Task: structure prediction
Amino acid sequence: MWKDYSAGYIKNNRSSGMSVIIAAFISALLLSLLCGLFYNLWKYEVERIELEEGAWQSRMIGGFDGEDIETVRNFAHVKDAVVNDREAEGQETALDLYFDRMDYVLEDTARIAEHMGILPEMVTYNYPLLAMYLVRSSRDTAPRLLFPMFLFILVLASLSLIVVIHNSFAVSMNARLHQFGILSSIGATPKQIRTCLLQEAAALCAVPVLLGNLLGIAGSMVLIHLSNVLLGSDIPGRHPAVFGYHPLVLGVTLSATVFTIWVSAWLPARKLGRCTPLEAIKNTGELQLKRRRSSRILFLLFGMEGELAGNALKAQSRALRTASLSLVLSFTAFTVMQCFFATSDISTRETYFERYQDVWDIMVTVRDVQADAFAKTGRIKELPGVESAIVYQKAAAKRIVTEEEMSEDMKSFGGFSHASGNEAVHTDGGWLINAPVVILDDLSFLDYCGQLGIEPQLDGAVILNQIRDVTNLDFRHPEYMPYIREENSTSILRQRGREEMAAEIPVLAYTETVPALREEYATLDYYELVHFVPASLWKEIRGQTGGAGEDISICVLGREDATLEELNLLQEEIEGIIAESYTVESENRIQERQTNEKQIQGMKAVFGSLCVLLAVIGIGNVFSNTLGFVRQRKREFARYLSVGVTPEGIRRMFCIEALVIAGRPVLTALPVAVFTVGAMLKMSYLGAGEFLAEAPVVPIGVFMLAILGSVALAYYLGWRNMQRINLAEVLRDDTMM
Amino acid sequence: MEILKCEGVRKIYGSGSNQVTALDGIDLTVSKGEFTAIVGASGSGKSTLLHILGSVDKPTEGKVVIDGTDLLKLNQTQAAIFRRRKVGLVYQFYNLIPTLTVRKNILMPLILDKKKPNQEYFEKIVSTLGISDKLEALPNQLSGGQQQRTAIARALIYRPALLLADEPAGNLDQKNSREIMDMLKLSNRNLNQTIILITHDEKAALEAERVITIEDGRILSDVRRR
Result:
C-alpha cells in the first residue's frame, strides 16, 4: 500500500504534509535543545564538583604503606589510588580511590575497606559526584534532584508536545477521511489504514526530525556560549562552561522525539482506522458545526460576514486548537514575564541600586582575618581615587532589654508581644534579643562620631536606636520609632549561647543615623539592637562576647561619577594590596549593575525565546490550516458565492477570522496580566503609577503585532489560493465525493 | 447455486421517538450468476440493504449469508477482507481515489492483498470496459462515464461473488448510462458475475432478469422476467 498509495500521495501533495513537517521539526528541535542543555548542565555540574571536591569517588583514612596502596590499586575496577596529603588526619593517610565504572564504587569500596581492615566510619564517598551518575547510597540523605527533575521535565515536554502537535497529524489525516472510506469500502482493513498513516508520518517526519535534532544541538551550543558571554567570570567561583555532546544524548533525544511523534500520529491514525467505511465515505471533508451555534458579538460588530466567520471558526475549533492554545499561552507568558521583570527591575533599583549608589563603589571581602588584625587599611585609604574606605566586621551577640528600658513608642505597639522565640526570649531580667555588633576600623569609627556630632573617642559604642512598626508589613515604606529609652550610659553585650559571658561597654550615643555601609539592619529580625564599636574596643571585649565572623569587609567609595574603567583599575589596585597577605574577593558597583542587567537580559532572552517558539507552533498551525483552505473550505466558499456573497464579503470574513485568532490571546492575556501585576505590586509594595510609568508596552506591543502580522499573512495566502477557485467547477466537482 | 441469503433482516436507525425502521424483515435469496435489480422510491430502504449486503453496515436483526459467510459474525478486519475478496461495490459517485491513476485504482483490492494481478484478466476487463487507453490518467482527467467504468473494473478485478451497484448510471447522461448498463450485462453474461443493481429507475431495472420492489423497508414484489 505504501508504494502504490502513500508514496504517490506524499509526492503529489507536498503542501498538505507541511503542518506535520513543521510539527515534527519543532518537536525535534525542542527535545534536542532540552537534552543538549541538560547534558551540558550535567557535565558542568560534574566539572564543578570535580573542581571543588575533587574527582575521587571514595576515600579511606587509615595507616597505608606503599605495599597497601599497591594492593588497593590491584583490585578489580580500581583505576587508581592516590594519597591525599591535605585530608590526612595525624599519622593516618587519606587514600583517594578512582574506579573504572561508577556502579562498582559503593560495593567495591566496602569490600576493599574490609580487606584492608579499615573501619566503615573511616570511609567517605563523594556523594555529589556519584549522584550525578545515578549512584545513590542509603547513607546519603541529600535530595540531589537534578536527574529526577530532568526526567520529569522531559516526560512533561513530550506529553505537552503530544497534546500540541497531534492535532496537526489529525488535521492532515482527516482531510483524507473520504479517501480512506473508499479504501475501506474496497477492503482495506483498519490495520492497513493505520499502518499506511503511520508510514506516511514516518516518511514525512524523517528529515525534519534529523534537521530539528541538528539545530537543537547547535542551539544548545549557542546557549552554552551565550551563558559564558553573559555570565563570564563576573560571578565569583564560576568556571567557564565548555560545550560537549555524547552519542548517548543523541540516542535519548531521538528516542524521545520518535516516541512523541509516533504517539501524536498514532492517536488520530487509530481513530481513523476504526472509522466505518460508511461514516468515512459520507465525509466530504467539509467543516461542520456539531450543534447550532450563534456568534452574536461578531454578528453585531460585522454583520452577516461576522456571523459566518464566527461559525467557521467554531467549526474549525479542533483544527485550530493548537493555534489557540499555543498563541494564548505564549502571549500570556510573554506579557506576564515582561511585567514581572519590569516590577522586579523597579523593586531592585529602588531597594538596592538607588539606595546604596552613594554608599559604595567597591566591596572587598577578605577571608580569615579579624578587623583589629587587618593591617592594610591605611594603604587602601591613601590610594588616589578613594574618597573613603571603611573596614568592618560583623559579630553576633545578645543583649537584655528590660521592661523599663523599652521606649513608650515600642510599648505602644505591644513591645515584644509580636516577636517570635528566635527574635526575643523572655527571661527573668527582661527580653533577651539579638544585638549584632558592627566593628569599624578606628579611623572610620572616629569619622562616624564626627558625623553624629559627638566627641570622637574609641572607648564606647554607638547604638542604632530604632525599631520598625512591626504591625506595618510594608517594607518599602517602614515607620521607625525609638527602640529603647536613651537613659543607660552602658550596654551589656552577651555571648550568644553562653549568655553568662558578658562585657559592659560605654554608650557614646543613641542614634538613627548609620555609617555609610552597604548593609541592611533589622530586616529579618525586627528586634535586633545594632551596636557599632571601634576595632580597638572590640579587641578588648571579644573574649567575653565572641561571635565574630571569619571574614572582614571593606566598603570603598570612589570619586563621584567614577567610570567603570576607573573603578576596575581601583579594584585591581586594592586587590593587589590585599592579595599580598590575604585571600580576597571583590566586586564593583557599576560592574555589578551591568552583570545584573546582563543576567536579566539573558533570562529575558531565554524565556522570550521559549514564548516565541510556542507562538511559532501556533502560527505554524494557522498557516497549515489556511494553506489547506482550498481542499477543506472550497465548497463552503463556493456555496457562499453561489448565493450572492461577494468576494469582498469573503475577504472580510477572512479578516474577521484572522482578527479573532490574533485577538483572542490579547483578550485572554489582559485579565491574567492585570491580576498578576496587581499581586506583584501588592507583594512588593509598589504603586500602580510607578509600574505604569515603566510598563513594558513596547515589547508586548511588538509581540502582539508580530502575532497579528503572521496570522494576517497566513490568511492572505489562504485568500490568494481561494481566489483561484472556479465556482462552477467546485459546485459540480465530485471526484472528491 | 445460492450465493446470497437474507433472513428477517431489520435495520432500525435512532432511538426512542427518533426511531426509523429502514428495513423491516427482508427475506431474500439470490443464485449465482443472477442479475437482480432492486427498485424503490427514495427512502424505501434499498441503499440500506446494499450497505448491509456490502458489509459496510450491520443489520439490527436477522441473518445475511454471502457465499457461505455469515456477515454478522465478522469483525471490522474480517469484514474489510470480505469486502475486498467477495464483494465489488459500485457507487453513483464513483468513489475513485483522486491521487491514483486509473490502473492503480482498479488494482487496489489486489494491492491491499499483496497479490499480483492476472494480466490477461486485467486486460480483458479494461478492454471490455473500454478504458485501455486511460490507464495512466487520473480520475479527474476522465469523463463521468469513464470514471464509472473504472469503478466497475475495480469492483470486478477480484472476481467477487457479488457485484453491488448503487445507481451506477444515476449521475450520467443517457448515452453513458446506456453504455454502463451494457457493461454490467456483459460482465453478467461473459463472466457469469452475480449482480445486484439498486436503482429508482424502472427502465434501468428492466435490464435485469429479476426485479425486486421495495417499499417502506419491505419487499413488495419479486418478479422473474425470464
